[in-house]
Amino acid sequence: MKKQHVEVAIIGSGTAGMGAYRAALAHTNSIALIEGGPYGTTCARVGCMPSKLLIAAAESAHHARHSDQFGVRVNAVDIDGKAVMERVRRERDRFVGFVVESVEGFNPDHRIRGYVTFKDDHTLLIDDHTELTADKIVIATGSSPFIPELLSGAGERLIVNDDVFEWQDLPESVFVSGPGVIGLELGQALSRLGVNVTVIGRSDSVGGLSDPEIKRYAQQAFQDEFDLQLNATLEHVNEVSDGVEVTYRNEAGEQVVAVYEYVLAATGRKPNISKLGLENTSLVLSEKGVPLYDELTMQTVMHTTPSHIFIAGDANNDLPILHEAADEGKIAGENAAKFPEVKAGERRTPLGVVFTEPQIAQIGLRFSELESKYGQNYVVGEVSFEGQGRSRVMGKNKGILKLFVDSNTGILLGAEMFGPSAEHIGHLLSWAVQQQLTVEQILGMPFYHPVIEEGVRTAFRDAHDKLIDLELLVEQQTKLESVITA
C-alpha cells in the first residue's frame, strides 16, 4: 500500500470540497483532494439544475393550457415525454461537464481517486491502495437521499430524485412521499406534464413554510392543482405486477388504496458519513453520528485537543443548499490550512427558494423563530398579490408576502413568501436583511411602475404604518402613566 503525507486532506470534490480546495490552495500546495464517486456536484447531477429543467418544461405546458384568460386559445397541448427527458438529460450532462472540467483542471498531483476510511485522527485509508496521513482534514462528503424503511416495499419501483433524471420517458403515475422542496417541485412539475401524481405528508408542512396563514394559502393553491394529502398516514407500500400498491389514511381518517407506476422518496437527505469510520477518531459525534462542530468556523469538536478536522456542506447536515455549501467549504478550507489559527467566516443571510409555481421564499428569520428571539417586539407588514397590478397583468396574481420588522429599530429581520417571482424578490429582501436596512430606508429606494416589486413596497408601507401606530400607542401609554403617577 502506498504511503503519502500532506498538510491538508479534503474528502469530497463537490461544491463544498471544491470551495475548500481553492481556499486551502491559497495557503499551501501540500493538498490531497479525494473523491470516490463521479466528479460533479449534487446540484448539477441530481439537484437544482436537472429539476429546474423539468420544471421549465412543466411551466411551458401549464401556461399553454391556461392562456385562455388572455384571449389566446391553444387547442391541444401534446407532451412528448421522451423529448422532455432527453432535453433534461442533455442539458444536465452539459452542466455536469462544466463541473467535471473544473475539478479536472485542478493539479493532478493533488487528486486521489477512492473512498476514505479513517484509521485514526490523522490517517486515512483510501480503498486498498493508499494510506494518507494529513495534518489537517476537511470532510466534505455531501449527502444522499434518506429512504424510510416503510417505502422499501416498493421494491424495484422505489425511486429517488436521482433516478427521475435518468428516465427515458415520463411515467403514467407517481406517488411522492414528502411535501418538502424536492417533493413539491417534482410533484407539481410531473403533474403539469400529464403524470398522475399524489404527494403525501404526515404533517401540515408545505415547503418549509412556518407562517400559518401563508402555509394554508399555499396548501390550498397546490391542492387546487394536484393531489396533495397532508396530515396523512402512510400504512402499506407493496410492489405488485403492474406497479406499486399504496395504502394511506387521509386527514379525514379515510383509507385510500391506489396503484402507481413508481414511488418517489422525497423524504429528505442524510449526510454521507456512515462509512467514514469516524468511530476510529476522537471526534465527538451526535446521536445520528454527525460530528459536532462550530457553525461559524466549521471546526469539529474532539474529546481532548483542539480539532484539526473541519466539516462543510451537506456532510454536516445543516443547510443543504449550494451557496451555503460553497461558503462553508471556503471557511473550512482556509481554517484547515491556517490551523491552529481559526477564525469565524462571514456568513450570509439565510435564503431559501422553492421553485414551484407560485414560488416559495424564506429570508432571514422565519415566522417560527421570531417570538423566541424578539418576544412581541416585532411587527408584520404584508401584502396579497391577488390584486397587485403587475401580477394581475401576467395572470400570476396568487400569493402572500409577510415582512418581519424589529419594532424597536425598524430593521427588517426576515420574510416569508408564497407568490410570483419569489426567487427575485427573495434576493432583494435578503440583501436588505444583510445590510440591516430599516423600513424607512427601504421605502426610500426606487420602485418602478408597473412591476411586481410594487407589492413589496405595499408590504413595507403596511409595516411602516404599524410601526407608527405602535409609536403612538407607546406615547399614549407613557402620558397615561405620567398622569397616574402625578
CATH topology of the largest domain: FAD/NAD(P)-binding domain
Give unreliable regions as ranges: none
- Radius of gyration, taken over Cα atoms and rounded to an integer in Å: 25 Å
Q: Characterize the overall form.
A: globular
Structural class of the secondary structure composition?
alpha/beta
Give me the number of helical elements: 13
Number of domains: 3
The description of the largest β-sheet is: 7 strands, mixed
Q: Could you name the CATH class of the largest domain?
A: Alpha Beta
Let me know the CATH homologous superfamily of the largest domain: FAD/NAD(P)-binding domain
- Mean pLDDT level: 92
Straight-line N-to-C gap? 89 Å
Strand content: 15-25%
CATH architecture annotation of the largest domain: 3-Layer(bba) Sandwich
Number of E-state strands? 22
Instruction: Indicate the percent of residues in helices.
Output: 25-40%
Summed up, what is this model?
With 486 residues, the protein is α/β, with parallel strands linked by helices. The protein is built from 13 helices and 22 strands.
Which features does this protein show?
486 residues; FAD/NAD(P)-binding domain; Enolase-like, domain 1; alpha/beta; 3 domains; seven-stranded mixed β-sheet
